[in-house]
Amino acid sequence: MVQTLIGPFTQILTLADIPLKGAIADDQLHIIKQGGVLTNGERIVEVGNFEDLRKTYPKAEVEAITNDLVLLPGFVDCHTHLCFAGTRANDYALRIAGKSYLEIAKAGGGIWDSVTQTRQASETKLAELIVQRANQHLKEGVTTIEIKSGYGLNVEQELKQLRAIKKAGETSSADLLATCLGAHIVPHDFGGTAEVYLEYLLSYVLPKIQAEKLAARVDIFIEVSAFNPTEGANYLRAARQLGFDLVVHADQFTTGGSAIAVELGALSADHLEASTEIEIKLLAASDTVAVALPGASLGLGIGFSPARKLLDAGACLAIASDWNPGSAPMGDLLMQAAILSAYEKLSSAETFAGLSYRAAKALNLNDRGTIEPGKIADMQAYPCADYREILYHQGKLKPVKVWKRGRA
User: Fold this and answer.
1) What is the rounded CA–CA span in Å between residue 311 and residue 289?
2) Could you tell me if 338 and 250 lie in one domain?
3) pTM for this prediction
4) Does 183 share its domain with 282?
5) Model confidence pLDDT, tens digit, residues 330-363
6) For strand 289-292 and strand 268-271, is the pairing parallel, antiparallel, or unpaired?
7) Full residue range of the structural domain in which residue 398 is found
8) Closest C-alpha to 307, from 360, 358, 266
């Protein structure tokens, strides 16, 4: 396979050799000036000074960079709901007029509204919508995207959603990773208790998902409007016994979910807007990644996850978009992260780490998120000479080049 040398870049932020957990100062960033990246197919072979690499590898094809560009790893969005149909503009209008998320849900809006609209869409239509959204993410430097089901809530519809995600993954250049969120809420048409519904998922939905190899991860919404901590813990234990990795929607409005996530060794606890010092200490002492979802805070008009406190306590903090039709319709990961960094006082290094290798950790992926030998060549380049410009523009400065598995 022909090797390709890409560069020179004014700056390369490799994000290599930075801790997986805790606070990070900007002076810990490894910045290569006038740098180059040597690739062999989809993998990175070497990173260093461009001219030195050109002399060492004279037979490599050169993909020339002629303008000032700053190179970063591709972003990893470790929490999205891109598989949906319809809109929840009515919910949003009610919310900005003063109604709460829970009030809207009790009145028939919220998640159930999206379930109704998504059930009406065909698998092919859902796949098309996913590809559109994933490709928009890819243009903005997001090269790996987790996507949840959870707007189906029965055997047929959950399988339809997960098949649509799989089909979309065959078309989009971005890597799409599916998660079963059948335990989003108890569907209004189920006719049984939360406990009985979760047993239904374990008996009838998860085995079929495994048989078709549609997802290896399960998520559950532990919240007043969904499932209580005891129900969530029992479901997750059973899912783990079936062989699934665990994820938890935790502490969005009330606490309880993150403690279950830590106790059961979940890969991540996501949301955390309501987390207190107790939950922060639990997460920091664990291997569970704390995932902040600033898009939900912006969409709901509530406070952000305590990102600064989590980092200072020693947690591994990732930042994801929560792109969904209800609480987080914006979908712009970089803009959300930039706003979070301003409010929570996150350094550039902490913000970029939360969007890359720490987010990859939340997906149990160790082959991406940094620019270093052996990693997948997922990269993005911004039109500036100083990496600090990227967050300074609060999401308005977008990448002009994106490489997915070595391909521009």
Assistant:
1) 11
2) yes
3) 0.97
4) yes
5) 999 999 999 999 999 999 999 999 999 999 999 9
6) parallel
7) 3-74+370-403
8) 358
